[in-house]
Amino acid sequence: MPLEKREGFRVQPLRLRLFVCVLGAAISSCTSPEIKPTAIASSERTVLPTDMLTQHNDAARTGANITETLLTPGKVRSGDFGRLFDWQVDGQIYGQPLYVSQVTVRGRILDLVIVTTMNNSVYAFEAPAPDSDIQPSQDPVWQLKARDLGKPLVFDYFPMSFGFLGHNIEPLIGIASTPVIDRRRGLLFVSVKSGSGGFLGFWAKAHYRLFAIDLVSGKVLHSVDISGSHKGVNGVDASFDPKYQLQRPGLLEEQDRIYLAFGSHQDTKPYHGWVVAYDADNLANSWVYCTTCGHVAAKDPDEGSLEGGVWQAGGAPVGDGAGNIYVMTGNGTYDRDTGDLATSFIRLDKNLNVIGSWTPPNVECLNASDSDLGSAGPLLIADQGVLVGGGKEGLLYAIKSDVFQGVQMGSGRPLGLRDVPGDPCAYADASPSPVENTQAYWTIQAAPLWEGDAIMDIERLITPAGLTQGYHHIHGAPVLWQLHDGVRGDRTLLYVSAERDLLRAYEFEGSFVTASPHGVQPIDTFESYCPNMNRGMPGGFLTLSANGKDPNSGIIWAAMPRRQKDALNHVVFGVLRAYRAYPDASGKLVELWNSDNGADPDPSGSCEDVPPSGTDELGYFAKFVPPTVSRGKVYMATFSNRLAVYGLKRAAVMRARPELVGYAAQLTEDPLPQVVTPGSTVAISITATNTGTLPWLVSDQIRLGSRSIPDFEKEVVENMTALMLRADVAPHQSATFKFHIRIPKAEATYYYKWRLIRAGQASKQPSGDWFGEPSPEWAFSALRSDCSDLRGRSAAITANLPKAQLIPQETVAQVQAIGLEAAKAGCMVSTDSMKMGSR
Q1: How far apart are CA 159 and CA 320, in angstroms?
Q2: What's the rounded Cα separation, in Å, for the pair 458 and 79?
Q3: Taking Cα atoms as reference points, which of 138, 137, 136, 131 lies closest to residue 649?
Q4: pLDDT reading at 801 higher than 80
Q5: pTM score
Q6: How confident is the model at residue 615 (pLDDT cuts 50, 70, 90)?
Q7: Which one, out of 34, 114, 145, 494, has a CA that is 20 to 30 A from the CA of 679?
Q8: Which residues of 496-525 are buried (b: 16+ CB within 10 A; e: fewer)?
Q9: DSSP secondary structure code for residue 787 in this structure
């Protein structure tokens, strides 16, 4: 089951309008009157270098902002760079934040940060000035809510495949992709899901809808339903069903059309891969393509052509500026005769007709083992006409655009799923050399080889899909930097960060300059000292900032879980890391800073994380969302219901605010349980000691808060007064906060922390200043007692797995029985012997 699946420019202000695609009212055929956006002078329509208007910064998905002059490797260091403030929002942030410059709002010229949430809200925040570390306002310029766009769905609104092992989206499903801004028209497009869940998941209704919204006022201007159908070669129509489809990839605008791509919810059938397009001027016309609708079964939708979702770990389709669209598909039906193109790179024309495709030679094994090609989005090296993308197999492919003429397949002879030990999808007759520049495509081993164990042997017998866990999946799309150094001249570097692997950079100039072929451990790469994580998924999600081609200016920003955390079906703490993008003399990509402790890692030895300091901690990791960098700030989505803002801590500003230096605190908590009952309440007692030089005054409105617990205040049984400082506290004295907190109803492991926030004295400092050290992390599991027997039996099987290559059939039957029993009881049984990916 696949895993979920410019500084220095100034122009006249721009007035914008916004489009939002929402899974909203019931799908029906509809037409749209012409949209007449606010008239914009031709001089105001140019995209500014500071604008980040689409997923991974541009339609080629380079992930690069090459006009960043404020953030340099010399300035991004502990003490000088860190978390400045955050904006609280009403849900998890799944879309990459967007940045649009020079917008006129109520007579003021502002830069805006656009943020969407899974609660179906859209926010426009005023961005801070480039030389400021002060939050302009806690409040948005405007906000649209679910009442405007449609009610989001609960995460289990219908029974999903392997739901008893957990859900990779919780607790709500709403806006799950990155919007796109049309600056020339002054429009923004966003994709959203809404509807209602029926009784026990039956009769659930889900919808998609596209809204047009004025950015300055937040007023909804227009909307249109999203629908589609495709007639197969057998004459059977397949219809787009929003219940089963998930619009995860970012949106693309290409030649006056808006393109949306769709995958699935945890591979729950029946679903297909869909790409739909709408006219940006009036939304009246639409175009539709289905990746696997060539031979849909008329009577049984679970048979025939299926799957082939476009999910790309949130990466958007590529547009080349000439009307060509590129996508990558996941597991499913591949058939040259019917036109089904799962596990493929696909090139479409403006009207969504297939121009050509390219498919790996081991496509059947990749499908059987759940090793999606389309687990990461594509990237276009425009000046070389080469499309680059990787997947769960840990391979990186580079394909010339002129290859995409008709149905093409790479060379190689698959060895079969069980024919050889080790890599289940290995193939003989090696693909072309990665360094030969006379070829049409190249394949390199961009991540370590497949690693198996006894647990996967049982997966091999039950379902080959478990074998994918041995690969180091590539989820984040590659990042591109074209630079110039005084010795080598112009160079092109491609950066990838596969799960459980190092940050790596590969040089490409007409071919890969140095790289390992398929089946050979990666060599001759530029790489970091330490891996992004030691277990689990999904690896790092990257953005590059640089001042043009200057090799000394580049920084790779990487969002990832902490090294011991697995974000597959869990919400876990994340970390933001900054690396020097140009390798040092030894070929290393040196880490400059990280949000956990700000310290450089020890390049000579241990890669173990130092305990977090708390000052700059990110909060809950936003899966598949890369950082957004513009005008000296790094904007980080989180699942803590906050948009975190990082930047330079200006010395001059600190001298103007000496009151901040005197505020410090140390928090301790009374012992707390490690296992609790879902839906119960737990008594919390936290003692805060004033370790600073200034007294804490009641008039400062100091209270206990949390940057990691979503909607923390709403989960407190008592009212907000229980979290407020009730008496002045002198230096070296303490105050104790006592309250009860509601435990979430879903079975899971949770990680809670608290910190103090000072909301008073707004004239002296920005409202909402966090200060002091956070409390120790409280890690606990919310478990139902009636599921303990299932968990115990599952753990016993895992503990007694034999070392032999084959697992007894009796053990296989036991695992299958536990899975069925857990599904019936609604229990989560997530043991190593049952882990599988989910989209």
Answers
A1: 39
A2: 50
A3: 131
A4: no
A5: 0.86
A6: confident
A7: 145
A8: bbbbbbbbbbbbbbebbbebbbbbeebeeb
A9: G
